[in-house]
Amino acid sequence: MSIKSYEGDIIAWADEQARLLRAGAFSQLDIEHIAEEIEDVGKSEKRELASRMAILLTHLLKWQHQPERKGKSWQRTIKEQRNALTICIKKTPSLKAVLGEADWWSGVWSDAVAKASEETGIDDFPESCPWTVQEILDAAWLPSSAAV
Fold this sequence. Notes:
Elements (H helix, E strand, L loop, with lengths): L9 H14 L7 H35 L6 H20 L10 H19 L12 H5 L11
Helix pairs in contact: 2-3, 2-4
């Protein structure tokens, strides 16, 4: 039997590693790459959390700074992202700790501001997120309109 290459075909490699694990053939496992893949699962979950949060924040910024354009589409996106974020955190409770990381918030806020600026033409959004995590995830909360 040939050992599958991680670099050559990751799917075939993963299938083989799973088979070896189930067979108890531990000495044949590609431990280093298995460890990398396990770490990547966590990174993927964090990327999904960040992406969804940036989308939500983008729409909250648009809601606040373009009150004349508020509509069902924005409401739907806000609701969908809040629901998805809640599910992500419920499914993977350790992600809740990420919500307390300043560096993570800085990156997510930067992404949200860039997207909101691109979509609205507005470039004077706050430098940091003015809302609490509780407000952002609260299904009943929406930011009040910005003073014009």
